[in-house]
């Protein structure tokens, strides 16, 4: 379930690809700092000498001193061992002083690289500003610097300490190496063997984690859209798959961590055990008591701590450094566009109605911005089942047509003590009818459309669409019953055709052409490069986005269309043409009217007036409702005046 490639659009690898990419710049970086490396080597040689001296002096303090009856010499050698241990402090100081000569230029270089890349991407990239630049500049650069410093310290320390200790063991007695080296090298080999698979597992875990986070962010931004389109369950299933995948990746990683711990155990503890077990054999080959103690000192004091630190650092810091360096220094992320591949998958639909969904700029959580072509798209609603027949259905009870929309004594309050926005509202809309809803701002028009759409449950009463109660109905079932087009019309990055056919993926070319013609979209579609032309939401005007959303609704197979001020950015002529096309479509149309013309066009008008409601033909309502008269007067005088 995890992505087939990493988020850079490259195939997932086990780290060798990244290593190949990083190696040349790393070599150049080190080649330019030969002086620092030389000084580090000098301090490291002192460290090797120190490691050598500690075991050597302990062995001689016994063999030549205390066991030989010469306490003075014994103490002398112990003083040498103490001096060697105390030498550690100036050596560390010297090493750290040189280390800055490597880590600080590395950090400066990485920051420069990250800035250059972000600037280039912001200027050229289709996705606009690079969202991850801040992370690269701060967190990732610091991780690289710290990991690099840790690696240089431990790798260098291990090499020189091991060299000093092994030389010391050899000088005490070659047989000691025969006992100590096999478990030491065996553990080390096992550890090295885990490096590549562990790096791969780490990448997979990272990718799975990112995919999950990405999916959650996109789903959150698209919540309203998902609810309106009924794709919630599919998104939830995809989320569950991603969680399962992330868990599997973490388990695989934990498995390799266990192998690594075993390697550490073998290399870190077995040599001591082997030495203890082999004492009689070693004594038989002339290994003295002092040499044995010296060997233990080498193991416990120098070799094993250095090995332990190396394994821990190489395992964690090494993998981290590789991943982070590859992100900053490696090739720039591919320009990922939805539908970029030969087989354009359906792009994610943007959030409907949420102003936070990035419609007003590219920096928001806009899932219309380029998304990976292969991974983690929110699924399309798929081909909905055939809609219930809108015009022919009959109620079983009395032989009358089943109402397309029916509200029975519906009350809605947004809080327990809040005044109801709608109070005991009854309404019946016949199949195929065109109803306009009007009323002043904040009176409850959107609340009504949400109740009918099933995205809001009434406090009391019942809302039915095509005879079915909508409250509590699963989202995918609601999708089959109605399509809600809100004021904020969202379109997604993808082809024009994909945008139009989103609610009806099986729509043929003829259907799409008919919709384009009926809504008067020919010139807009032609300007966007035809049905196969790709569009970017932020390059469209709000009115153009509304036209595309209306065309999508026109193609929707749902028998009921709910337009909640969905034409507010259109000019009167475009609005008229779109509404007439939607009204001609088989099915019922409910429009929250934005202009008088819109109300006049409808078969009936519902005027919401506080908790009162008046419903009837335009002329009837004009006669019965003072509020409607006021509104029409305002519309006639004001900027909304239409046809
Ligand atoms: N989620 C909510 N929580 C609490 N109150 C809400 C909520 N949504 C709407 N309201 C309140 O309910 C009332 C009706 O709101 P609604 O959005 O349905 O009105 P409207 O007629 O569509 O307004 P407009 O024409 O300005 O869009 C308003 O007073 C509004 O403040």
Automatic annotation (TrEMBL):
UniProt entry keywords in alphabetical sequence: ATP-binding, Membrane, Nucleotide-binding, Transmembrane, Transmembrane helix
Species in which this protein is naturally found: Streptomyces bobili
Molecular function terms from GO: ATP binding
CDD domains on file: ABCC_MRP_Like
Name of the protein in its database record: ABC transporter ATP-binding protein
Transmembrane residue ranges: 36-56, 76-96, 148-169, 175-195, 261-282
Topology relative to the membrane: Multi-pass membrane protein
InterPro entries tied to this protein: AAA+_ATPase, ABC1_TM_dom, ABC1_TM_sf, ABC_transporter-like_ATP-bd, P-loop_NTPase, Type_1_exporter
Biased composition annotated in UniProt, kind: Pro residues: 381-390
Cellular compartments annotated: Cell membrane
Domain ABC transporter: start-end pairs: 405-634
Keyword Amino-acid biosynthesis tagged: no
Gene3D superfamilies named in the record: ABC transporter type 1, transmembrane domain, P-loop containing nucleotide triphosphate hydrolases
Sequence segments annotated as region (Disordered): 350-401
Superkingdom field: Bacteria
Domain ABC transmembrane type-1: 40-305
PANTHER family per the UniProt record, alphabetical: ATP-BINDING CASSETTE SUB-FAMILY B, ATP-BINDING CASSETTE SUB-FAMILY B MEMBER 6
Primary location: membrane
């Amino acid at each position: 379930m995890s992505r087939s490639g990493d988020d850079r659009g490259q195939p997932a690898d086990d780290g060798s690809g990244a290593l190949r990419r990083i190696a040349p710049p790393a070599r150049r970086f080190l080649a330019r700092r030969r002086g620092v490396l030389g000084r580090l080597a000098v301090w490291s040689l002192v460290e090797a000498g120190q490691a050598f001296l500690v075991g050597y002096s302990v062995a001689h303090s016994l063999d030549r001193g205390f066991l030989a009856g010469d306490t003075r010499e014994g103490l002398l050698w112990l003083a040498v061992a103490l001096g060697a241990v105390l030498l550690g402090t100036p050596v560390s100081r010297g090493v750290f002083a040189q280390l800055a000569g490597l880590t600080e230029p590395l950090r400066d270089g990485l920051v420069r690289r990250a800035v250059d890349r972000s600037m280039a991407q912001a200027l050229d990239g289709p996705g606009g500003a690079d969202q991850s630049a801040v992370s690269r500049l701060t967190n990732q650069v610091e991780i690289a610097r710290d990991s690099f410093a840790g690696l240089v310290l431990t790798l260098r320390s291990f090499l020189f300490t091991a060299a000093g200790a092994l030389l010391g063991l050899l000088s005490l007695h070659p047989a000691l190496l025969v006992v100590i080296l096999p478990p030491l090298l065996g553990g080390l080999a096992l550890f090295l063997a885990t490096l590549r698979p562990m790096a791969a597992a780490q990448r997979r875990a990272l990718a799975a984690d990112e995919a999950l986070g990405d999916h959650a962010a996109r789903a959150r931004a698209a919540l309203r859209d998902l609810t309106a389109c009924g794709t919630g369950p599919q998104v939830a299933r995809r989320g569950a798959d991603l969680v399962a995948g992330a868990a599997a990746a973490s388990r695989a990683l934990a498995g390799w961590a266990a192998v690594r711990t075993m390697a550490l155990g073998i290399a870190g503890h077995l040599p001591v055990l082997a030495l203890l077990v082999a004492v009689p054999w070693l004594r038989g080959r002339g290994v003295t008591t002092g040499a044995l103690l010296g060997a233990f000192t080498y193991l416990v004091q120098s070799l094993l701590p250095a090995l332990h630190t190396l394994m821990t650092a190489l395992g964690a810091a090494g993998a981290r450094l590789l991943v982070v360096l590859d992100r900053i220094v490696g090739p720039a992320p591919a320009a990922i566009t939805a539908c970029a591949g030969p087989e354009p998958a359906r792009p994610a639909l943007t959030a409907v109605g949420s102003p936070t969904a990035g419609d007003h700029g590219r920096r928001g959580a806009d899932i219309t911005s380029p998304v990976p072509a292969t991974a983690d798209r929110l699924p399309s609603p798929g081909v909905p089942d055939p809609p219930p027949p809108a015009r022919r259905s009959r109620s079983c009870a009395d032989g009358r047509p089943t109402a397309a929309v029916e509200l029975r004594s519906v009350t809605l309050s947004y809080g327990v003590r809040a005044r109801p926005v709608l109070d005991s509202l009854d309404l019946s809309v016949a199949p195929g009818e065109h109803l306009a809803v009007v009323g002043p701002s904040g009176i409850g028009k959107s609340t009504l459309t949400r109740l009918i759409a099933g995205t809001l449950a009434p406090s009391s009463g019942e809302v039915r669409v095509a005879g079915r109660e909508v409250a509590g109905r699963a989202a995918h079932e609601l999708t089959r019953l109605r399509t809600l087009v809100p004021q904020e019309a969202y379109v997604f990055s993808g082809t024009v055709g994909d945008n139009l056919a989103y609610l009806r993926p099986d729509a043929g070319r003829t259907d799409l052409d008919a919709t384009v013609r009926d809504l008067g979209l020919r010139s807009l579609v032609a300007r966007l490069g035809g049905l196969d032309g790709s569009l970017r939401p932020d390059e469209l005007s709000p009115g153009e986005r509304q036209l595309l959303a209306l065309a999508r609704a026109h193609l929707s197979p749902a028998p009921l269309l709910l337009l909640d001020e969905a034409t507010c950015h259109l000019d009167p002529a475009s609005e008229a043409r779109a509404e007439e096309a939607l009204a001609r479509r088989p099915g019922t149309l409910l429009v929250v009217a934005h202009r008088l013309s819109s109300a006049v066009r409808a078969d009936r008008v519902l005027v919401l007036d506080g908790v009162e409601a008046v419903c009837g033909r335009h002329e009837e309502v004009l006669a019965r409702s003072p509020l409607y008269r006021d509104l029409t007067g305002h519309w006639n005088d004001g900027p909304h005046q239409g046809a």
